[in-house]
Specification:
Blueprint (H helix, E strand, L loop, with lengths): L4 H10 E3 L13 E2 L18 E6 L8 H14 L4 E4 L13 H6 L11 E3 L3 H4 L4 H7 L7 E5 L2 E5 L7 H12 L6 E4 L14 H6 L1 H6 L4 E4 L5 E5 L5 E5 L19 E6 L3 E8 L2 E8 L4 E8 L1
Parallel strand pairs: 3-4, 4-5, 7-8, 8-9, 9-11
Antiparallel strand pairs: 1-2, 1-12, 3-13, 6-7, 10-11, 10-12, 13-14, 14-15
């Protein structure tokens, strides 16, 4: 679907870009964006799309869940989408199995006719002890687990229990054979400047593994907005928690040690990833089809 000039202007006003830091506590204050971030001609991906997926989180039963699902359906008309990937909090309020049909199945029925749904579990999904039942409902194994699409491997962890066993599993997966493009998915954000802020246990236990292996992309949820960070090692961290539930503001102040916040938006959205030779093209799309952010990650 084409994007009107008015929609582009609205997105530009809604989007803040932060360069070389993110707010107070010794960092640089955010600057208002004058245009939607986009890749330059030299940075635009080339070559055929080998695979693709859409990622979204914090949606179950939310007021904008259907609108985001509809936007993803429209995206699939012109783009390759092989899987749906969630960043958690899929079923509110406590992951009740009686809500699976309404919050997991029906909103994405059309999308799931020919595509799997690979979920990570959020705190709401496990609040009443039904996380395993949600995974079984979708035909998925226990966390952590790996899934592969042409040209990319996705590694899904359970950040409700940030333990050494999962860190060791992640190390083995990243050190072992596989595509050079790896995407790691879990709920609680490694980095965030919002209501929940960064997750100390994640940055302490899993962060060194992610950085040491220069993972291409880390996808998280928990904070209901969009944020993108780039670490000094070149790892891209994305908070994509705008799948349907009420939104949270993005703070001017960030936790100490937060890497450069490149883009942010308080909009309902999904994150689309297209896989080419040696690159991931990441496009963030609002529920009205406005493009909020674009970047190309190369490895």
């Amino acid at each position: 679907m084409s994007i009107s000039a008015a929609a582009r202007a609205a997105a530009a006003l809604a989007l803040a870009v932060v360069l070389a830091g993110c707010g107070a506590r010794g960092a640089v204050a955010p600057q208002a964006a004058t245009s939607v971030p986009s890749t330059t001609l030299l940075d635009r991906p080339a070559g055929p799309v080998h695979s693709g997926f859409v990622a979204f989180g914090d949606f179950g039963g939310g007021p904008a869940q259907e609108a985001v699902a509809d936007a993803m359906e429209r995206w699939t008309v012109r783009h390759r989408v092989d899987a749906l990937v969630t960043t958690g909090d899929n079923v509110y309020e406590r992951g009740e199995p009686e809500r699976f049909a309404a919050q997991l199945d029906r909103p994405y029925a059309e999308l799931r006719r020919s595509r799997p749904m690979w979920v990570s579990l959020g705190n709401h999904d496990v609040a009443a002890g039904h996380g395993d039942e949600q995974l079984r409902h979708l035909g998925l194994p226990d966390h952590p687990y790996a899934k592969t699409l042409p040209g990319v491997q996705l590694l899904l962890l359970d950040s409700n229990r940030v333990d050494q066993a999962q860190a060791d599993w992640l190390e083995r997966q990243l050190a072992g054979p596989g595509p050079r493009l790896r995407v790691v998915v879990f709920h609680h954000p490694a980095w965030s400047c919002s209501r929940h802020d960064s997750t100390e246990e994640v940055t302490r236990h899993w962060g060194p593994v992610l950085e040491r292996h220069r993972v291409a992309l880390v996808l998280n949820g928990h904070d209901h907005n969009y944020q993108r960070f780039t670490s000094p090692e070149g790892v891209t961290y994305v908070v994509t928690g705008g799948g349907g539930k009420p939104l949270y503001p993005v703070d001017d102040d960030c936790p100490a040690g937060t890497p450069a916040q490149v883009a942010e938006a308080r909009r309902h959205h999904f994150t689309a990833v297209e896989v080419r030779d040696g690159s991931l093209a990441v496009t963030v799309v609002a529920d009205d089809d406005t493009v909020l952010d674009r970047t190309v990650i190369r490895r």
